[in-house]
Design goal:
The complex is a heterodimer of chains A (252) and B (217). Chain A has 252 residues and is α/β, with parallel strands linked by helices. Chain A is built from nine helices and ten strands. The longest helix of chain A is centred in the last third of the chain and has 16 residues. The two termini of chain A are 35 Å apart. With 217 residues, chain B is mostly helical. Chain B is 82% helix and 0% strand. In chain B, helix 2 packs across helix 4 and helix 6 packs antiparallel against helix 8. Chain B starts with a helix and ends with a helix. The chains are: A alpha/beta (252), B mainly alpha (217). Chains A and B meet through strand 6, helix 3 and helix 5 of A and helix 5 and helix 6 of B.
Chain lengths: 252, 217
């Protein structure tokens, strides 16, 4: 079943062509890894999916429903705004810089969205949150403020926070890039567990080991285009595109 | 000093405190709305709030108070044919509120814009609306950062309530001036002492609030 479908998507920042005719389909249960040099449009692609950025033209479907459609043709299909916000809520997002709410404890960081958006009962939200904290191994830090947590711990809370909204797809935007090397492992471990549980994931990452181990598919982006895709093994071992080869040479 | 004079000074001080608290309380709510207008992407809202702040920060508070008390009746007469008279206290509150709202709005705007934009993105990505994100995530974080400039404005308004002397309202400055005019210069210094006491009390109070609000940092 197709969870995300991206058709002919273009995105400009001013005159800068950040996404150039991107087409991609992600099936349920896939762990799609997105790699490429910085400025290649990886993060922008992710951010366009949940409307943190708006595309300039093209179509995006989530769960087979249109969520974004821009273009110059006159009779353009309009996505229903109410539907769009509920579809966007099916996407959980984890940021490079965690973006935990500093004035809330770890527990409150997780409960605030279910309570505010889903009008969930506070006791129920807290019970769910404790379960999620247990899952990411952070239960003993439930009442700490983010400033008292290490980067890895913050990121694990951030993953729990996104999971609290029961998303069908999790988007990871370089989740380990801001971490000290010795803290990367604990975050990847949580992500691997999620993948094993069958979560559909789209992961922008520089962690090639992670991509190889849990990625079901890998795309390589350069200058706003998807220049190569396949299973991680295929792309790593036998890259066809010159740009891809060069990139792997430079990072390995 | 007679008992009647002590009573008059006390009542004048109360008027000063009332003016300050009421103007700040109403001005604060109004300022928050203005600040949201200033950061809004809506050009009309943005323009209106910009003009408001420009006018009220760019003209003297004393003139604004004079207009509120003496100007409003004349203005309403020429517009509607009827005099609308505000009480002295009402006019004083109106002038002080509108003025402080302009200053507080800029304080709040700066506070809101100082919050990392990742906070709004995280809130939005969790499905919160812009309003929910502002109310639950952004504005609570501005609280601690805004306390020092807010305390500053509070003390300014507390002192500036003395300007309402131009419309004849009997607050602390006017009361002591009347007694001093009777020949006893000490009243000027008594008034000064009372102002100093009040500003000190509120400054200490705001310092405490700031310390308490820093608990998560």
């Amino acid at each position: 079943m197709s969870m995300i479908k991206i058709e002919g998507v273009h995105k400009y920042f001013g005159t800068n062509h950040v996404l150039d005719d991107v087409n991609l389909e992600i099936q349920q249960g896939e762990v799609m890894c997105v790699v490429g040099p910085s400025g290649s449009g990886k993060s922008t692609l992710l951010r366009c999916l949940n409307h943190l950025e708006r595309i300039t033209s093209g179509k995006i479907y989530i769960d087979n429903e249109l969520v974004d459609h821009r273009g110059n043709d006159k009779d353009i299909l309009k996505a229903d705004p109410k539907k769009v916000s509920s579809l966007c809520a099916e996407l959980g997002m984890v940021f490079q810089r965690f973006n935990l709410f500093p004035h809330k404890t770890a527990l409150q960081n997780i409960t605030i969205a279910p309570i505010t958006v889903k009008k969930m009962d506070k006791t129920k939200a807290e019970a769910n949150a404790m379960e999620l904290l247990r899952k990411v191994g952070m239960i003993e830090k439930a009442n700490e403020f983010p400033s008292r947590l290490s980067g890895g711990q913050q990121q694990r809370v951030a993953i729990a926070r996104a999971l609290a909204m029961e998303p069908k797809i999790m988007l990871f935007d370089e989740p380990t890039s801001a971490l000290d090397p010795e803290l990367v492992g604990e975050v990847l471990e949580v992500m691997k567990q999620l993948a094993r549980d069958g979560m559909t994931m789209m992961v922008v990452t520089h962690e090639m080991g992670f991509a190889r181990e849990v990625g079901t598919r890998l795309i390589f982006m350069d200058q706003g285009r998807i220049v190569e895709q396949g299973t991680p093994k295929e792309v790593f071992e036998n890259p066809k595109n010159e740009r891809t080869k060069e990139f792997f040479r430079s990072i390995l | 000093m007679t008992a009647a004079q002590v009573k008059a000074l006390f009542e004048g001080t109360l008027v000063t405190i009332e003016l300050t608290l009421i103007s700040i309380a109403i001005g604060l709510v109004f300022a928050l709305i203005l600040a949201l207008g200033r950061i809004s992407k809506n050009k009309i809202l943005n323009g209106i709030t910009w003009v408001y702040i420009w006018v009220f920060r760019g003209t003297p508070l004393m003139l604004q108070l004079i207009i509120a008390y003496f100007g409003v009746p004349l203005l309403s007469k020429s517009l509607t044919g009827e005099y609308i008279n505000l009480s002295m206290f009402g006019a004083a509150v109106l002038g002080l509120t509108l003025n402080t709202a302009a200053y507080l709005a800029e304080i709040f705007r700066a506070g809101i814009q100082s919050i990392d934009k990742g906070q709004m993105e995280a809130a939005r990505a969790l499905g919160m609306s812009y309003g929910q994100a502002m109310l639950k995530i952004i504005i609570p974080q501005t609280y601690r950062r805004v306390i020092p400039p807010f305390a500053n404005e509070f003390v300014m308004i507390l002192k500036d309530t003395s300007l309402v002397i131009v419309i004849g309202l009997s607050e602390l400055t006017r009361v002591s001036k009347q007694f001093a005019a009777g020949g006893d210069w000490k009243f000027y210094f008594i008034a000064g002492g009372i102002y100093l006491f009040l500003t000190t009390v509120f400054t200490v109070l705001f310092d405490k609030m700031e310390k308490k609000a820093s608990k998560y940092e």
